[in-house]
Specification:
Elements lengths: L10 E2 L1 H10 L3 E6 L5 E6 L2 E3 L2 E7 L3 H8 L2 E13 L4 E15 L3 H15 L4 H11 L3 E16 L1
Antiparallel strand pairs: 1-8, 2-3, 2-6, 4-5, 5-8, 6-7, 7-8
Helix pairs in contact: 3-4
């Protein structure tokens, strides 16, 4: 169960929160290990099928933590602007909670990698395809199934 937003007047509706999630450049993935030690790391990602997908090496802290505890949080911050005279900031952000798992299906994995190329390097799709083929076996893809999404903004 999630707590209600403290500033309900700043809540983004679900459509606006999802739009911010989809257009974000990177997000911070937060996990915890088997001893509940937290770990947050920025990742490039893509939203497909109402889930968040990212790629990584086939071993490392992210995957160890996800194996130990599939519950994760993912945060994206959009546009920000300092308002010094008000000691505040204009912002937009979205926080997701959900569960993460490695993708084993090669067709889905390749589609996610293609979507990442389309998002981050759209002018390099043909060389991206070759890059995917070359490194597919050395690349893991993780899906975060969204259980809860909440966006906030200060205009």
């Amino acid at each position: 169960m999630t707590k209600p937003l403290r500033r309900e007047d700043r809540r983004l509706d679900d459509a606006a929160a999802m739009a911010l999630l989809k257009r974000g450049e990177y997000g911070i993935l937060s996990t915890s290990d088997q001893s509940n030690r937290p770990y947050g790391i920025p990742v490039n990602y893509v939203v497909m099928q109402e889930s968040i997908f990212f790629h990584c090496a086939t071993e490392g802290q992210k995957l160890e933590n996800i194996t130990a505890n599939k519950t994760v949080s993912f945060c994206v911050v959009g546009k920000t602007e300092l308002i010094p005279e008000k000691f505040s900031t204009r912002y937009e952000s979205v926080v997701v909670s959900g569960t993460a798992e490695m993708i084993e299906d090669d067709v889905l994995k390749k589609n996610v990698l293609r979507a990442l190329v389309a998002k981050y390097a759209p002018e390099h799709t043909s060389s991206g395809e070759a890059y995917i083929d070359k490194l597919m076996d050395q690349t893991a893809v993780v899906q975060v199934c969204i259980a809860h999404l909440a966006g906030k903004s200060r205009k």
